């Protein structure tokens, strides 16, 4: 649902989120009047906060309490009301350059040092995936008709692993074409695709510009995009998916982690279930976050139960144009987003430069 806010409502939402981030206490109209130059009366602020609550951007944890941002409120705040803090980004870049000597260290040692620095600077749990030496490049692919109207895509990678996906052919307005005609078209299309994408990594396939396909193959463009997206989704990460983790002790002091059971679940995820966490951090399909460099998953947007009260911010680092790893921070949804996003983005840029 699209939510349209007036400038005043946006300003009050921004102030409410900022105040809650700073205090961890439900926010009332008096606090906003005292600390922010809103140039309106407390009654006007209360009315605006009531509207924001009705549309699901704020809520009251108790009847007599002030209001707290919801996950949707944080989403509006991140997407519309802030930009990454450039001063923080410059500070992170400078500290990394000053503290780390990438000429003398191994890259893994550099990652370990960077993880500790980012945890200290951000105050959140830092997660950095080790670079993947195996990028699953396409060696050969073949489109095969298995039933009328159904096609299997078979992809062989440079390590001779095979991925396959079965999908329905796109419907055409004309009568159903002859099976032999489809076989010939699929062979031609297979040859064309092999010439275009052999040597590319699987992670690149879902984001190729299919508009460049020859016009004779345009009817298959959406179909092929869906096929390759599904292949990438099914591709298992390499057996070694180690994530460097720093800053746990600091973030667990936040009031959001006061329940022992919640802490146990989070620690188990970080220590014993990195294979579940890894694909959330090393996300290579940019279509899910509208082409933005940094992915921000807030609260209930996270599919894993132990972090559904947390925010996970991540960005890939690259070797050339290929994403090989990711850097992220994990903390409570009550996070200073403009700083955290800047930290992650600056660190990803630094690691990409260091790796190349």
From TrEMBL:
The lineage's top-level taxon is Bacteria
Please report the stretch or stretches of sequence annotated as the Heat-inducible transcription repressor HrcA C-terminal domain: 108-341
Which InterPro entries has this protein been placed in?
GAF-like_dom_sf, HrcA, HrcA_C, WH-like_DNA-bd_sf, WH_DNA-bd_sf, WHTH_transcript_rep_HrcA_IDD
One Pfam match, given by its short name, reads HrcA
- What keywords appear on the UniProt entry? Repressor, Stress response, Transcription, Transcription regulation
HAMAP family attached to this UniProt entry: HrcA
Q: Which NCBIfam families match?
A: hrcA
Q: What does this protein do?
A: Negative regulator of class I heat shock genes (grpE-dnaK-dnaJ and groELS operons). Prevents heat-shock induction of these operons.
The protein in question is named Heat-inducible transcription repressor HrcA
Identify the species of origin.
Answer: Floridaenema fluviatile BLCC-F154
């Amino acid at each position: 649902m699209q939510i349209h806010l007036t400038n005043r409502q946006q300003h009050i939402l921004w102030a409410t989120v900022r105040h809650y981030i700073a205090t961890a206490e439900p926010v009332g109209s008096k606090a906003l009047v005292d600390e922010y130059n809103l140039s309106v009366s407390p009654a006007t602020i209360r009315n605006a906060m009531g509207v924001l609550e009705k549309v699901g951007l704020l809520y009251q944890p108790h009847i007599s309490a002030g209001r707290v941002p919801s996950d949707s409120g944080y989403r509006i705040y991140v997407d519309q009301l802030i930009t990454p803090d450039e001063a923080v980004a410059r500070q992170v870049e400078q500290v990394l350059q000053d503290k780390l000597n990438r000429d003398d260290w191994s890259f893994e040692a550099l990652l370990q040092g960077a993880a500790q620095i980012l945890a200290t600077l951000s105050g959140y749990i830092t997660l950095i995936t080790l670079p993947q030496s195996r990028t699953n490049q396409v060696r050969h692919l073949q489109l095969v008709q298995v039933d009328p109207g159904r096609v299997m895509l078979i992809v062989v990678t440079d390590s001779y692993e095979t991925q396959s996906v079965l999908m329905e052919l796109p419907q055409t307005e004309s009568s159903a074409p002859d099976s032999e005609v489809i076989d010939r078209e699929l062979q031609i299309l297979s040859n064309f695709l092999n010439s275009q994408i052999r040597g590319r990594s699987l992670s690149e396939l879902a984001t190729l510009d299919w508009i460049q396909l020859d016009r004779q193959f345009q009817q298959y463009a959406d179909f092929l995009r869906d096929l390759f997206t599904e292949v990438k989704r099914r591709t298992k990460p390499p057996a070694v998916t180690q994530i460097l983790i720093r800053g746990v002790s600091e973030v667990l002091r936040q009031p959001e982690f006061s329940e022992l059971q919640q802490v146990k679940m989070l620690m188990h995820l970080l220590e014993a279930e990195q294979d579940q966490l890894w694909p959330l951090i090393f996300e290579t399909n940019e279509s899910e976050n509208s082409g933005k460099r940094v992915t921000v998953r807030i609260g209930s947007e996270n599919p894993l139960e132990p972090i559904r009260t947390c925010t996970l911010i991540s960005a890939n680092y690259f070797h050339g144009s290929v994403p090989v790893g990711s850097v992220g921070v994990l903390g409570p949804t009550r996070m200073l987003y403009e700083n955290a996003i800047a930290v992650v983005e600056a660190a990803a840029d630094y690691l990409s430069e260091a790796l190349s």
